[in-house]
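Allow me, if you will, to draw on your knowledge of protein folds for a short while. Thank you for your consideration; the sequence and its tokens are set out here:
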Amino acid sequence: MSEVNPFETAQQQLDKAAKVLDLDKSVHQALREPMRTFIVNFQVKLDDGSMKTFKGYRVQYNDALGPTKGGLRFHPDETLDTVKALAAWMTWKTAVADVPYGGGKGGVVCNPKELSQAELERVSRGYIRAISNFIGPDKDIPAPDVYTNPQVMAWMMDEFSKSKGVNSPGVITGKPVEVGGSEGRGDATARGVIYTIREAAKELGIPLAEANIAIQGYGNAGYYCATLVQELLDCTVVAVSDSGGGVYNENGLDIEAAKEFKRANGSVSGFDGGEAITNQELLGLDVEVLIPAAIENALTKDNAHSVDADVVAEAANGPTTPEADDILCENGVYIIPDFLCNAGGVTVSYFEWVQNRNRYYWSKSEVYERLDKKMTKAFADVHSRAQEEGVDNRTAAYMVSIEKVAQAMKLRGWV
């Protein structure tokens, strides 16, 4: 991965949009840094009886529009700057999706692959105990992210509920349906990506039934993107990859077989359904749509010139550096920026929170219908703003989001 600092990238993107907006200096200054940052150290007993100290983060970037909202990552290379960047992007994501939240993010420095299930549970509960005074259904609502899942969310919700002496399903989203989760949450992020690709294809005149797709990253988001572009858009997925390598088949991949191979072997590298390619080769394939669905800084100034896609749909958070952004725009690539493209997850998380608060739950078809409307409107708002202002889509998305947050801050009397 590139050495680019993700938080500096987030600040540069904000600065670019603030200049176009001629944003008030006090608002701009306030939006360049998170409102609150928590660093916690907590002890967990491992299976061998020893105690280990884990470091955790929680960043509440801005709550002008509502309680902060954002995922929790368990990753050995987690850094505070990464969490700050993701919290900033969540602030813009909730605003562009028009859900009444601010942005937050959290993480624990650990390698879940080295933890037993019992140790993973103890880490999950220990982290929540450490931050329990800083979160809540009306304060800050975590959700799953890299290497966390619905089971981890269930443990965390349970631990928070125990600590407060109340049943509080609304403190966490992304839970299993049996303990207050929402129907349709599992593929919500990918479904939002697909809705925005559909809308972009309409604007660009791309016949999706003839379109080829390449997907970098084959975790949950990447896998669901692969299945849904076939199911909903009738596209052909010609390449997928993960950290171990990739596979390419110009006639289309067997998505389910590739998933089963990854489950059995830990990577799609070596899958015999196509020829082996590297991640960098995948990024340069001649396809209609490239979906970066892995982690930050996949597209940099060093490889952006090789991108040969008409559309880059950013399913991952922060996959494109500012320098790569400029190169792609100069080359006429249509970018669907991350905090618009992947806003389906937080949108359905909002739906889950609403259902938790009302104790009334919707069907999967209701969730999908509401998500489609939200994502379609968000895309239209950004696309039309880009056309009106003569700016790129990312800058337009920032403009739409920043205006909402800035106006809320002014009305509250903060600036």
